[in-house]
Amino acid sequence: MDTIQLHLPEPKGPHYGPVIYSYMRARALADGALIDVTETGKEVGFKLPVAITEMLQNRLTPTKAEAAAGQDYDSRLWNVLWVAAFTIKLADRGTDTVTFTVVQQEVEAKSGQLQNVELRLRAVCNPGDEDKPDKAPCRGVTIEFLENF
User: Fold this and answer.
1) Would you say residue 6 lies in a domain?
2) Which residues span the domain enclosing 139?
3) Tens-place pLDDT, residues 86-131
4) Measured between alpha carbons, how far is residue 146 from residues 24, 122, 124, 129, 143 in Å?
5) Rounded Cα distance, 144 and 89, in Å
6) Greatest distance between any 2 Cα atoms in the chain
7) Count of domains observed in the chain
8) Is 139 within the bounds of a domain?
9) 25 class by beta-carbon count within 10 Å (0-12 exposed, 13-18 middle, 19+ buried)
10) What is the mean pLDDT of residues 43-68?
11) Does residue 127 fall inside a structural domain?
12) Residue 56: inside a domain, yes or no?
């Protein structure tokens, strides 16, 4: 897989002023709000660190019924990372965010049967903690639910 560099656009307009509060990626990883999946990301072809949100990790973790039906976390994570990498590869070079959908099988509560569920996700290029966010190149990718933002 080719290395893709996503670059953050310069913020413009009257709504951008001094930062009041920022929650850095390193702190989010330490707090457990982000989960480092870089090792699996490397297997898929990512060249940058990759993290997923805790909410996404929880959704990828199968219930006992789903595990009994053959679903597992590693396969679900691989699917998310592979589709993210493929979507990034197809994206315009100037973008910092891509959206994509992954289908996974989940047990429906009433019937107890597996059903296909679409997870609407986005991958966002992160500048890292060292530089000002409006000037830094991409230093990592975070994957999260589209509905959260």
Assistant:
1) no
2) 25-148
3) 999 999 888 899 999 999 999 998 998 999 999 999 999 987 655 4
4) 20, 5, 10, 23, 9
5) 18
6) 54
7) 1
8) yes
9) buried
10) 96
11) yes
12) yes
